[in-house]
Amino acid sequence: MSIPQLEPPFDRALADALDYVFEIHDDVVSINLAGSVFRGETDPRSGLDLYVIIGGELRHRDQRIFAGVSTEMFFNNEKRARGYFERDQREGGASALALMAFGHIIYDPDGVFARLQADALDVMERGPTVPEETLTVRRYGAVDQMDNALDVADRDPAMARILATEAVSQAIAVWFVERGGWIPRGKDRLQELRTVDPEAAIAVERFVESGSVAEAEEAIAVLLGVGGFFEWDSIPEF
After folding, report:
1. How far is 52 from 185, CA to CA, in rounded Å?
2. Do 86 and 103 form a contact (C-beta atoms < 8 A)?
3. Which in 41, 82, 212, 217 has the greatest CB count within 10 A?
């Protein structure tokens, strides 16, 4: 095994997590440590992310606390893990891909995760392939949520701000995918927007600082180029 050097208490948490993984599974194929802890970008609530390849058909997600550290463990066989490649490409979010593409391979006697990591990196470099109809639906979803916020702005301002915040976050996600990029993690969306489109980020920050739903509507107009309800129809299905 290749154990990375981590600061306390993450080192103890990782040791306990590995003991746990091998205790509950006798068919462990590979283990990869991903996430902000490995990258040295810890926040106050940072935890461990372990992607574990196992044999058989079992798939599950296990969340535990080791040495006071929240730990998320994802268990899949190789075939199922590769199935997330297409899903993430189609949806535009690299949630599973990032766990496989980046990190530190702890255990991989047969090179299974090394191959997964190389292929996941290749997919991430090529970018998402979100269908145009899906993008339209998401654009409409953000605008519709914004309209809902405006509907209740006078009678329930607090709810209006909640809806407006959701709408703006959705619009930021669409902004990235429309330009061929992956949707950033929720907590990174505004920071990454600042680096690539300062003008759009400023519009979002005006809303955040003021709490005004009118500013949220303006931010969405900057992000999506639409200011409200627009006409569209889905591809007919039988």
Report:
1. 21
2. no
3. 217
Q: List phi, psi (to 5°) of 76.
A: -150, 155
Which tokens belong to 48?
């461990």
CA distances from 91 to 95, 137, 180, 193 (A): 10, 12, 12, 19
Distance CA 12, CA 26 (A): 22
Give domain limits for the chain. Answer: 10-126, 132-224
pTM of the predicted structure, to 2 decimals: 0.86
Contact 215, 207 (CB under 8 A): yes
10-126 placed in CATH 3.40.50.261: no
Please name the amino acid found at residue 107. Y
What's the CA gap between 172 and 219, in Å, rounded? 9
**pLDDT tens-digit readout, 171-203:** 999 999 999 999 998 888 999 999 999 999 999
**Could you read off the pLDDT of 16-33 as tens digits, one per residue?**
999 999 999 999 999 999
pLDDT value for 74: 97
Q: Report the C-alpha gap between 27 and 132 in whole angstroms.
A: 41
Which residue has tokens 């006078």?
154
Q: Which uninterrupted H or E stretch holds 73?
A: strand 69-76
Cα distances (Å, whole numbers) of residue 111 to 26, 61, 123, 138: 18, 23, 19, 39
Q: Which residue has the tokens 């990454």?
A: 192
Which tens digits make up the pLDDT trace of 49-102? 999 999 988 899 999 999 999 999 999 999 999 999 999 999 999 999 999 999
